[in-house]
Amino acid sequence: MTRPTMPSVLLLTAWEDLDWAIVDVAPVDMLRQIDGGSCFAWTLAHVTFQVDSWINRRFQHLPLDPLLSDPRFGIGGDGGADDWPAIRAAVAGVRGRLRPFLLGLDEADLDRTVSYDGSYKPFRETGMILRAAIVQCAIHHVFHLGEIVTKRELMGYDTGSFPGSFGAALVGAAYQR
């Protein structure tokens, strides 16, 4: 089996870090909004909608997850969520459809470009390049990981060491928690 491409590794390790950041969070706290900001469940739905829309729909031609494609989880959403178990299941489904695709990519595949009509202006001008889409999704996850880690501290949870796996992947090192 071939080694996964670096963009794929970055997204997979961003998932790992994000999952680790919420593993010990109580279900009630997954839905808690602090000072009007987004709750953790919303954030996970939000970043997962991006990978579903950008990669699963555009490159794999799969239908969007009906829960995660709700406009409330898009840019400008209200940051609220009311069903953590349903969101967790939807995230698992999206990732389950995406993981084999990511693991099967080679460097040439990453140069694929598709037309794009979404809100991200650079892709509207150039088309969506798979390599860039995967890396952008990984960065988006890590951006929101920082938000979650900060809010964990405000909620009284230990902040841990982040980004762990993602940071290690950038330099080709293994990471163990």
Could you characterize the architecture of this molecule?
By secondary structure, the protein is an all-alpha fold. It has a single domain (6-170), classed as Four Helix Bundle (Hemerythrin (Met), subunit A), CATH 1.20.120.450. Helices cover 56% and strands 2% of the residues. Helix 3 packs parallel to helix 4 (84-103) and helix 3 packs antiparallel against helix 6 (130-155). The relative contact order is 0.21. The model has no long low-confidence stretch (mean pLDDT 91).
Q: Can you identify the CATH superfamily?
A: dinb family like domain
Question: What is the CATH architecture descriptor?
Answer: Up-down Bundle
Spatial sequence of strands, sheet with the most strands = 1-2
Largest sheet: 2 strands, antiparallel
Could you please say which CATH topology applies here? Answer: Four Helix Bundle (Hemerythrin (Met), subunit A)
Which percent bin holds the helix content? 55-70%
* Rg from alpha-carbon coordinates: 16 Å
Average pLDDT level:
91
Strand element count = 2
**Percentage of residues in strands:** under 5%
Distinctive features:
Four Helix Bundle (Hemerythrin (Met), subunit A); 7 helices; 2% strand; globular
Short description:
With 177 residues, the protein is mostly helical. The chain is 56% helix and 2% strand. It has a two-stranded antiparallel ribbon with strand order 1-2.
Fold blueprint:
Elements: H1 6-22, H2 27-30, H3 40-60, H4 84-103, E1 113-114, H5 121-126, E2 128-129, H6 130-155, H7 165-170
Antiparallel strand pairs: 1-2
Helix pairs in contact: 1-6, 3-4, 3-6
